[in-house]
Amino acid sequence: MSRIDVHQHFWSQGFVELLARRARPPLVRRDGDGWCVRLDGEPDAPIPPAAHHPVLRAEALAHDRVDVALLCMSSPLGVEALPAEEARPLLDAWHDGVRALDRRFRHWGAVALDGAVPADVDAVLDRGALGLSLPAGALSGPERLERAGPLLEALERRDAPLLIHPGPGLEDRRAGAAPALGLQPWWPALAEYPAQLQAAWLAFAAVGRRAHPRLRVAFAALAGCAPLHTERISARGGPVRGVGDPLIFYDTSSYGPRALDAMIRVTGVDVLVHGSDRPVAAAPADHGLGRAATAALHRVNPARLVSGVTARPERRLEAVA
Amino acid sequence: MIPHDAGRDLTAVELEDYVGRLAARPELWAGRVSHDPAARVFEELLRDEHLAVWLICWMEDHDTGFHDHDLSQGAVAVVQGAVHEDRLRFDGSRRRHTLRRGQTFSFAAADIHRVLHAGEGPAVTLHAYSPPLWRMGAYEVRHDGTLARHSLSYAEELRPLEAA
Fold first, then answer.
1. Which residue of A has its CA nearest to B52?
2. Is residue A310 very low, low, confident or very high in pLDDT (cuts 50, 70, 90)?
3. Predicted ipTM?
4. B87 vs chain A: nearest CA distance in angstroms?
5. Are A141 and A198 in contact (CB under 8 A)?
6. In this structure, how many other beta carbons lie within 10 angstroms of the beta carbon of residue A112?
7. Which member of A268, A290, A316 has the closest CB to residue B41?
8. For residue range A184-213, what is the model confidence (pLDDT) as tens digits?
9. pTM for the complete prediction?
10. Can you give the pLDDT at residue A108?
11. Does B8 contact chain A (CB < 8 Å)?
12. Do B101 and B79 contact (CB within 8 A), yes or no?
């Protein structure tokens, strides 16, 4: 059984060149040997030259002891939320780039939210995507979730999973906004992403699951630790059943043994999947939870997320070691 | 699966009652029974905020080793074959109970015990933990007779920890 990393990013040269030609954010500019990313309302973020080098990234798989890495769009860029005529060439270039990598890299498809239809989902799946990624902002409330409903139905019909990644939806664009004074580069990842993910998790648990009973959904970054709020969700009459949903998965990106242990206490181990967020974050070789938990996070649970072979958590601990 | 509507963690008495009622409903779990000579087979039957229920299938020589359940109390029903439950005494001796089909037992979170396959033929047990099992302690008796506790995630298989 393959060791799978469900969450990595890769920008091909072609994708970066299109971003470099843009006059308005999202855009990149040369910064020494590497690049600098400019987004509306956020401080500039440097991208080291090695981050998206195809050979170095392939070597990193061996270093991380990963057999298959699932690449997804860097949704915080806001490409999916751009007007369709701006988003589509960028998304085409991104897909071309990830398809050109060797077979150890698979990808989550991405679509332009502006005017998106189910055929867009079919198109990315037909061209090799194993599922779809959507920015959390496209799903972060009942109304937004309902608007995305036809895309989720298309995934469900194809038995393909959804990855929910931090990033803006159509209503979240803040064109021309300057970053607040003193904002550090870590601010969005710690103050905004968890909140977006929590809102998307609450919306999906409250109304999404009923509309899409068989959809396998993975949230990046432990869904902003949304399930850890279980007692508060219960106390305020929220959708506590989301905590025990066996088809909602949580990737581990940038979290370690303490947060993962707290999640396991609430959700059980069967819904946690290893996601490194490379090259944004370094991948831990081991989450420090022990041999059986490692097998569950790296092999058994991601296989269930991707293929859906087992709809119900099922474990033969020795067999997967 | 048999629901519970306590809205809180269950007591040991309630857990023993639960596994007893579940044992009487084989249509809810018999399809999940499978045995593997190499190791116990675990199947999670239910997990919610207050209760986790597992089916465990045992064959000859399968043994959990001495362990505790950290903050969770639990109960077991034997639905096929037999298992021994051993308790560790401070003088190094063991207190053994043998449980056969139709029998149940419970344990408090503070209890340290070991469960192992007994008799001939495969065994099947139903286990209920409240709150759901999360961390466990596995005990190792070292060569010099001292006792060591290893903290494990519940995902980690409990097996006898041999002195190195």
1. A268
2. low
3. 0.79
4. 25
5. no
6. 21
7. A316
8. 889 999 999 999 999 999 999 999 999 999
9. 0.90
10. 98
11. no
12. yes
